[in-house]
Amino acid sequence: MATVGLLYVGAVLFINGMMLLGKIDARAAAIFNLFVGAMQVVIPTVLIITANNRADVILGASGLFLFGFTYLYVGIGLLGGFDTTGVGYFSLFVAIMALGFSYANFRIANDKPFGVIWLYWAFLWLLFFLLLGLKREHLTVYTGWVTAIQGWVTAAIPAFLLLTGYWQNWNQNLLAILLAVFGVVVFGGLWVLTRRQRALPGGTGRAGGETAAAH
């Protein structure tokens, strides 16, 4: 059940990344945020109710609320035209908690690939805090690309591989290393590229005038 939810987390991150890049209208993206946000609240609630006090199930389900509340917060904020500061500072909370869930996956669940993926999410939600909470609008384009890419790399592709059984066929240590290297190379390269674009005459780091876009 949680894996199905992860698939649609990939979809909403991709859509929101495109929104930040000025490709999708903010109010149109808000509707899908509400759909996925509701899903990511209902699924962990069901998992916890049916967990029979299994600590591992409850731990895994509890992390899903971080995303569910984020997408609901974003969807309502975009539709209502609210200031982004609140969701920005909530993103800081999510980023910090993601570090804890990363540690839990490495040390408790012995799931190294998802330990790395939680680090991805900690980085992404930190960017949301900087962009939406601190209004660092020059990060809009960079955050948009990171969001869209993470939608595929951390959610849609892993979810599909888990659903089809192929994820388990990979050497988990190797998979974790590949994910870590990919993140450093791609997001580091994107930072250099977008920084150069901002340095060009007329470069602002904003896409399509979207500054209130969310994740």
TrEMBL record:
Regions that span the bilayer: 6-24, 31-51, 57-79, 86-104, 116-134, 146-167, 173-193
Subcellular location: Cell membrane
Record has Cell membrane as a keyword: yes
Pfam families: AmiS_UreI
Keyword flag Transmembrane helix: yes
Cellular component GO terms held in the UniProt record: plasma membrane
InterPro entries: AmiSUreI_transpt, AmiSUreI_transpt_sf
UniProtKB keywords: Cell membrane, Membrane, Transmembrane, Transmembrane helix, Transport
Topology within the bilayer: Multi-pass membrane protein
Family: Belongs to the AmiS/UreI family.
The protein's name: Transporter
